[in-house]
Amino acid sequence: MTRFRHACNALLCLASLLALPARANDFAVGNLHILQPWSQELPPNAPTVAVYLTLDNQGMGADRLLGVDTPIAGQAEIHAHVDQDGMMKMQKVDDGVIVAPGTRVAFAPMGYHIMLMQLNGPLRDGQYFPLVLHFEKAGDISVDVDVLKVPPVDPR
Ligand SMILES: [Cu+2]
Question: Domain containing 39 — which CATH number?
């Protein structure tokens, strides 16, 4: 009976694995991890799109995201949402984003995001595109950004 129950548990495990996205979408260079980069599917003529992800520094020293690049857009900038006289506004981040050792920095709606401007074409659900992150210490890290119609259920 015990063995039978184990078999059932294994099947349940398999079923839950199949429900996850087809591709693992985490990236790492050394102790610096980039978790779940994604952007939202937009109407065909949308001029800009935001990319979200989580930076996870599992190392002993701080690092800093200095800038980003992607072949799918003419311009890519790090943005933050800031409260300006009670109004939330987007602002370009010029001095980079510091990731302290042992911490995570989430790029998420209404917070830090990567703004892609002058898009070369439409982004459709299920596609992904390359994005290069320039770090002060870790150097360049290339990740794949998933284009999703629905935001990830479990953003990290
Ligand atoms: Cu922005």
Answer: 2.60.40.1890
- pTM, full prediction: 0.81
Average pLDDT over residues 66-89: 94
In a domain, 126, yes or no: yes
Which domain covers residue 80, as residue numbers?
Answer: 24-148
Distance 92 CA to ligand 1 centre (A): 7
Residue 14 Cα, ligand 1 centroid: separation in angstroms? 39
> For residue 38, what are the CA distances in angstroms to 75, 123, 140, 143?
18, 11, 18, 10
Closest listed residue to residue 33, CA positions, set 86, 84, 101: 101
Could you tell me whether strands 128-135 and 113-119 are parallel, antiparallel, or unpaired per DSSP bridges? Answer: unpaired
In total, how many domains does the chain have?
Answer: 1
Asked if residue 121 is part of any domain, the answer here is: yes
Distance from the alpha carbon of residue 78 to the mean position of ligand 1, in angstroms: 7
First CA to last CA distance, the chain: 39
